[in-house]
């Protein structure tokens, strides 16, 4: 698993790299000392995992997430407790407070493995899911076996994703980021941090605030496409 370390303190990067030597499955492919460097490296190298400080020169960790093309698993490593709630809101894999405790880091890596294994539990395990593929979904005692194209929306709820199809909306233990990697980009589109929408279920598109868009789905749910994602959306559809 390829990883990047982003921290403006050289000693902090060195210490974390040393701790990560205990996990041979993690390959450090680069380091950055500020947010602008991080955006370039992440967009170019497309790592699976990023260990990132929050308070840095030029751009903070949250601003980096807003500007990268595709969000990998994010572990915030910071000296402050103040940002834990916001980290949860942007679907970070974990939040570690400095100085990094080796046992705490081990828990994070275990969580990373668990998230990857979750893909094998709820039916999203067989490569990229394309139109015509079926998927098994289990929420508590209820189970469904559906065509992936019947899903009109995926909604992030912390460490869970709510799946909307027909009149059902089960909840599965999975991050929206890991799910995005399993979906056909020709069928599903990441509208913003919270939603992935089915392109075939869009009935109406209108301009929205700050250069964004708002789409209406077949079930009449309205979803905002962020300004950054709207650029990709328009280019993809030739708008």
Describe this structure in words.
It is a single chain. With 239 residues, the protein is an alpha/beta fold. The protein has two domains: 2-118, Response regulator (Rossmann fold); 134-237, OB fold (Dihydrolipoamide Acetyltransferase, E2P). The protein is built from seven helices and 15 strands. The protein has helices spanning 10-20, 35-45, 61-67, 84-89, 102-118, 176-180, 227-237; strands at residues 2-6, 27-32, 49-52, 73-78, 94-97, 134-139, 142-147, 151-157, 160-165, 171-173, 188-190, 195-198, 202-207, 213-217, 222-225. A five-stranded parallel beta sheet has the order 2-1-3-4-5, with helices on both faces. It has a five-stranded antiparallel beta sheet with strand order 10-9-8-12-11, with no helix packed on it. α2 runs parallel beside α3 (61-67). The chain is globular and about 50 Å long.
Q: Spans with pLDDT under 50 lasting ≥5 residues?
A: 117-121
Which fold does the CATH topology of the largest domain refer to? Rossmann fold
Give the overall average pLDDT: 88
* Level-1 CATH class name of the largest domain: Alpha Beta
Query: How do the strands of the widest beta sheet line up side by side?
Result: 2-1-3-4-5
